[in-house]
């Protein structure tokens, strides 16, 4: 996709990152910013500045001297992959240019897209779940539909929250149904365990405030988590114009609340857990849309599709899962990681550990808040300290080119050396972001480069999933010391791979092997044990 240049952008303007609000490009008329200048484009009426076309999105550019900084309301970002930008963008326009028409996504227009995406909890892998920030950010990114969970306070105020208790997200053990709204309004959702220590805490939004903003323009999949608020929730939905074309009633497949929703003209989505295929015949005919948990086997996915209704699978965090669902014929993807899953390109070329916020696509090998490694902005590093063998996908930097690239990284044992034979390093050349752990035979095909406590550097290859990996090249280097940062470069090029340790002189080897040329890589702690591992300065040079 090509865009015309915008040579009149003034030096000193700053492009702000969506995820951390830190400058990512300055002085756009300098030599370093020349390529950015040639990608400046317009996206509607602009009071100041223009927009920067990033790898997967458009970012508005501001002059901080004129605007006094940047606020979330001033920030605009939309997906270039999903909005068909080529037809409507033609260089930076004058500040008086007319705004694009207001969006009006309906259930019908959503179904006209294949696949179609719904922001699960507002894309909870990217922004604090079920908050106004999450919903607004997902919508600004370009999604047509968001999913909202609803609970009622003791005085009848409907709020957006998945759990009926506030402990998991606020740290306070309160049943929402037993607390007045005044008490709930004092709480803040805290997703720092999942998103990183600098993720902003956010209030629990009132449902009416969220619907006032999005009910007329987007599709809302809405669920009463307490199952006691059917009439109140339907009454509120009814108060919005053209509500039957914007709301979908969401509930477990066996819930009887669908009867009232259907009677008022709303379409319903009934969802099934994995392993519940024996209930499909009983409940699938009752709903307009059918849902299934992502862990369900392929056989259950295909069985549910035989009912001839759109199937929506939740919750999708990764690209490999998206591809699996599309191969099976699933059309609806309720996604927790919208910026990452809806694109197929790298969001960056270097880690953003310094921001204290996890980048989209960076995920532990299993989706579990308790297993998210600690992002350490003070040392610009990430700490893998789970007691088991562990890996962390660097999806924000993937896919790398199919050939001719380098991966650079530093790694250390900060507190104690590993058990005998314990190794750390990276796996690379992976076809997709399927979880990979070096010592698990069920990991996908790929390479892993690991170093042990004695300094042995070994490159292994797993040719077929289900087989053990075999060492294809190795060398001895200086034995690591506790707390010492070890620095590595892996160079992949036509004809082979060169692996180098460069922190203490240079220790390297080359191997003529082209078996794996996938675009994904992961950070690895290859042993069971509490000795933590830290990575920093992870980057890809193309």
UniProtKB/TrEMBL annotation:
Q: Which CDD domains does UniProt cross-reference here?
A: GDPD
Tell me where on the tree of life, at the top rank, the source sits: Bacteria
Q: Name one Pfam family in it.
A: GDPD
What start and end residues bound the annotated signal peptide?
A: none
User: Which SUPFAM superfamilies is this protein grouped with?
Assistant: PLC-like phosphodiesterases
InterPro entries named in the record: GP_PDE_dom, PLC-like_Pdiesterase_TIM-brl
Start and end residues of each GP-PDE domain: 115-346
- GO molecular function ontology, one term from the record: phosphoric diester hydrolase activity
Instruction: Name a biological process GO annotation.
Output: lipid metabolic process
Name it. Answer: Glycerophosphodiester phosphodiesterase
Q: Which organism is it from?
A: Arthrobacter oryzae
């Amino acid at each position: 996709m090509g865009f015309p240049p915008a040579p009149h952008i003034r030096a000193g303007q700053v492009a702000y990152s969506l995820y951390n609000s830190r400058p990512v490009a300055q002085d756009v008329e300098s030599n370093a910013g020349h390529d950015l200048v040639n990608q400046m484009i317009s996206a509607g009426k602009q009071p100041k500045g223009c927009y920067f076309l990033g790898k997967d999105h458009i970012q508005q550019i501001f002059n901080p001297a004129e605007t006094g900084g940047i606020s979330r309301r001033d920030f605009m970002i939309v997906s270039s992959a999903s909005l068909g930008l080529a037809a409507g963008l033609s260089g930076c326009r004058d500040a008086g240019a007319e705004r694009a028409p207001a969006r009006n996504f309906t259930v019908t227009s959503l179904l006209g897209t294949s696949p179609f995406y719904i922001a699960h909890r507002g894309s909870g892998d990217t922004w604090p779940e079920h908050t106004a920030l999450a919903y607004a950010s997902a919508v600004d990114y370009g999604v047509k539909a968001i999913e909202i969970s609803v609970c009622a306070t003791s005085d009848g105020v409907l709020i957006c929250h998945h759990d009926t208790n506030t402990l998991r997200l606020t740290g306070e053990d309160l049943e929402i149904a037993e607390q007045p709204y005044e008490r709930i309004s004092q709480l803040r959702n805290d997703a720092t365990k999942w998103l990183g220590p600098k993720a902003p805490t956010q209030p629990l939004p009132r449902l009416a405030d969220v619907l006032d903003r999005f009910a007329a323009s987007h599709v809302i999949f809405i669920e009463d988590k307490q199952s006691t608020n059917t009439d109140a929730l339907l009454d509120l939905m009814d108060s919005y114009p053209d509500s039957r074309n914007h709301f979908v009633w969401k509930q477990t497949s066996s819930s009887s609340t669908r009867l009232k929703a259907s009677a008022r003209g709303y379409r319903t989505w009934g969802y099934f857990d994995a392993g519940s295929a024996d209930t499909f015949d009983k409940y699938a005919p009752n709903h307009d849309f059918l849902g299934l948990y992502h862990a369900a086997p392929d056989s259950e996915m295909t069985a549910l599709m035989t009912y001839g209704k759109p199937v929506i699978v939740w919750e999708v965090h990764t690209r490999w899962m998206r591809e699996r669902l599309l191969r099976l014929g699933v059309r609806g993807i309720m996604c927790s990681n919208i910026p990452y899953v809806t694109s197929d390109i790298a969001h960056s070329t270097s880690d953003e550990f310094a921001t204290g916020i996890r980048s989209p696509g960076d995920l532990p090998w299993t989706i579990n808040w308790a297993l998210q490694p600690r992002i350490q902005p003070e040392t610009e590093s990430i700490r893998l300290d789970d007691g088991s063998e562990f890996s962390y996908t660097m999806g924000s930097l993937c896919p790398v080119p199919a050939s001719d690239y380098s991966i650079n990284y530093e790694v250390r044992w900060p507190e104690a050396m590993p058990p005998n034979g314990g190794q750390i390093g990276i796996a690379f050349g992976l076809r997709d972001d399927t979880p990979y752990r070096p010592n698990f035979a069920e990991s996908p095909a790929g390479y892993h480069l690991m170093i042990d406590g004695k300094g042995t550097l070994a490159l292994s290859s797993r040719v077929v999933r289900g087989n053990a990996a075999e060492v294809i090249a190795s060398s001895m280097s200086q034995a690591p010391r506790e707390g010492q940062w070890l620095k590595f470069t892996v160079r992949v090029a036509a004809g082979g791979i060169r692996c180098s340790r460069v922190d203490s002189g240079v220790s390297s080897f080359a191997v003529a092997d082209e078996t794996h040329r996938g675009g994904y890589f992961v950070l690895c702690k290859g042993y069971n044990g509490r000795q933590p591992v830290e990575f920093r300065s992870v980057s890809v040079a193309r």
